[in-house]
Specification:
The chain contains eight helices and no strands. It has 193 residues and is mostly helical. α3 crosses α7. Keywords: Membrane, Transmembrane, Transmembrane helix. This is DedA family protein. InterPro entries: DedA_domain, VTT_dom.
Length: 193
């Protein structure tokens, strides 16, 4: 199944609708969707290395806009929709500790989150229900998300053929490691915060 998704994403990169699909996934992932945009971004950059930088920009803008939606879910709808999302992911207990950490370390939480596999939607919703400054949230989100996606673009533009070769030869291992990192992000959020 994952191999078919990878192959489909590679073929999608050549279509005019590719940036729109990438933007939709990146936007949704920042506020409610569980799958990170990297699952589309990396194969699309591998298929079209000439568009790696524009794909990174699309991901960054859509992710920050989706993050603003997540922020307002936390700010205005935490008791209903926000709490449901945290409960869906089994992270309600961790969310409360994470919220209290914002009082002292809000800037660092957003910045360092970009270096970990902690799902961004959890940070966006928590930022809203913690009442974190919206201006700072947008600025730090743009820095963090931009750094993440542009580093991927740099790697893909410089080492794309080598990376594609490794993925093609060891697809199951790469998929396993990606899934482990994804699950590890939720576990880290739950037990570290």
């Amino acid at each position: 199944m994952l191999r078919r998704l990878y192959d489909w994403t590679l073929s999608l990169a050549g279509k005019p609708s590719a940036p729109y699909a990438l933007a939709a996934v990146s936007f949704a992932e920042s506020s409610f969707f569980p799958v990170p945009p990297d699952v589309m971004l990396v194969p699309m950059m591998l298929a079209r290395p000439d568009k790696a930088w524009s794909y990174a920009l699309v991901c960054t803008i859509a992710s920050v806009l989706g993050g603003i939606l997540g922020y307002f879910i936390g700010l205005l709808l935490y008791d209903s929709l926000g709490a449901w999302l945290f409960q869906l992911y089994g992270l309600t207990d961790g969310a409360e500790a994470f919220r209290h950490g914002y009082a002292q370390y809000g800037h660092w939480v957003i910045l360092l989150k970009g270096l970990t596999p902690i799902p961004y939607k959890l940070v966006t919703i928590t930022s809203g229900f913690a009442g974190y400054s919206l201006g700072w949230f947008i600025l730090l989100s743009a820095l963090t998300r931009g750094a993440r996606f542009f580093v991927i673009a740099l790697l893909m533009s410089r080492f794309g053929p080598t990376i594609k070769s490794v993925i093609d030869r060891h697809f199951n291992l790469v998929a396993f490691l990606a899934i482990a990192a994804f699950i590890g992000g939720f576990v880290a959020f739950r037990y570290l915060f």
